[in-house]
Structure formats: structure tokens, C-alpha cells
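queue> pop job 88
queue> type: inverse folding (structure -> sequence)
queue> payload:
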């Protein structure tokens, strides 16, 4: 069988690409990655040629089957390696809810603080609504970590951690205020080898995106 191909955007900027990339790595799936430059503001990407929703990430399984949407790709990874969801069914349901909350929520945080792993700035560009989203994420992390006992949100590393990975980087990039428990979680995520490998990849990139770097 040929390896699945994961189409991703720039590692420094593409938050949605980071999530399934982490899930596939944690699942131990051998895959090929194909990197695409995200469009400049107002630019027209050509992702329609590679993906049903004209976005990255997309996982090409061969035979014309291309899976769109980060969470759907994470679920495919979990079918190859179920251990990337918690074993306990209640914890698994809560972890799935946590992943879905991230997939559909926190629009103000996403708008105010786009992922930019290499950048270090402050939170002055953020709106009150964006900061409120970040505070809610912090509250959720504390609740989930307290319930599971850690080290990751639902005990062992799971897709929920993949979904919140880009938010971890946003707390650092924009120096967003956070609790001590959130800081400890951020430190554990940053030290985790697959997360570190993505960050290293972002740091090696030279392309810049003015809409993210200068705003
Ligand atoms: N809901 C999608 C969002 C994917 C998404 O917005 N990807 C961005 C890059 S991070 C993209 O392809 N942007 C190009 C565009 O929208 O034209 C998912 O979860 O995969």
C-alpha cells in the first residue's frame, strides 16, 4: 500500500494542519507530507486541486479518496491506532467533546491571535472577546487536567491535545495571561517530541506572511 499523503500549509502558520499531523505522528502512521504556501491576504489559494473543501489539511488515501477537515483526519488516525483517544468511555466522550469545542469554537481567539510559532509579541492587539476566549480555554484545561490527573488533558496524550496544540503556541506568541496550571501544560506540550518536531519545522521555514507577521 502506498503511504497516505498529508497536504499541509506552512508549519509556522497553518494551525489546522498541525492538528492531524500530530495525530498521525502519535498514531505511528507512516505518511508523506506535502507542504503548500498559505495565501497572502486576499490571495487565491489553489487548494481546490488537492482538497474537496479547497483547504489544507487534506489526507489523500489514494484511489481518489481525499479526506478533508482536521478532525476527520484525526479520526482516521485513531482508527489506525485507537490509543490516541482515552480508553475509558467517559474520558473518551469528554475528550471528543473537547476536540469538537475547539474545532467549532473560540473564533475571537483565532481571529485576534493567528498561529505564528516563530513570533514573540504581546497581547495588546487582542480584543476583550479574544482574551475572554483564552481565559475560557485556560479554565477548560484546568478542569480537564484536574479530572484526569494529567499529564495531558485527558491523561495520556490524545487527539484533544492535538486540537489544542496551536492554542498552546498562541499563548506563547502573544504572551497571553495564563494560570500556573496552564503554564505547566504548555511546558509539557512544548517538550513533547512530536510537538517539538513541528515547532522545529516551523523554525526552519523562511517564508513570511505579512498579514500575520506585521499585524
Ligand atoms: N475546518 C477546516 C479548516 C481548514 C482551514 O481553514 N485551513 C486553512 C489553513 S490553516 C486554509 O486552507 N486556508 C486557505 C483558504 O481558506 O483559502 C479544518 O478543520 O481542517
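queue> result:
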Amino acid at each position: 500500500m502506498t503511504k497516505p499523503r498529508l497536504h499541509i500549509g506552512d508549519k509556522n502558520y497553518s494551525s489546522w494542519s498541525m492538528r492531524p499531523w500530530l495525530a498521525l505522528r502519535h498514531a505511528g502512521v507512516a505518511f508523506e507530507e506535502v507542504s503548500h504556501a498559505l495565501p497572502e491576504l486576499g490571495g487565491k489559494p489553489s487548494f481546490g486541486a488537492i482538497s474537496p473543501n479547497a483547504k489544507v489539511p487534506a489526507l489523500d488515501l489514494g484511489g481518489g479518496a481525499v479526506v478533508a477537515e482536521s478532525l476527520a483526519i484525526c479520526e482516521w488516525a485513531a482508527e489506525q491506532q485507537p490509543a490516541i483517544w482515552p480508553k475509558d468511555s467517559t474520558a473518551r466522550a469528554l475528550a471528543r467533546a473537547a476536540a469538537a469545542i475547539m474545532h467549532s469554537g473560540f473564533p475571537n481567539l483565532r481571529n485576534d491571535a493567528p498561529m505564528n510559532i516563530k513570533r514573540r509579541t504581546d497581547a495588546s492587539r487582542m480584543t476583550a472577546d479574544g482574551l475572554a476566549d483564552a481565559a475560557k480555554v485556560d479554565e477548560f484545561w484546568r478542569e480537564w487536567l484536574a479530572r484526569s490527573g494529567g499529564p495531558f488533558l485527558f491523561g495520556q496524550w490524545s487527539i484533544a491535545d492535538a486540537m489544542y496544540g496551536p492554542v498552546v503556541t498562541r499563548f506563547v506568541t502573544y504572551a497571553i495571561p495564563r494560570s500556573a496550571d496552564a503554564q505547566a501544560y504548555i511546558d509539557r506540550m512544548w517538550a513533547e517530541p512530536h510537538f517539538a518536531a513541528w515547532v522545529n519545522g516551523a523554525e526552519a521555514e523562511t517564508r513570511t506572511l505579512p498579514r500575520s507577521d506585521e499585524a
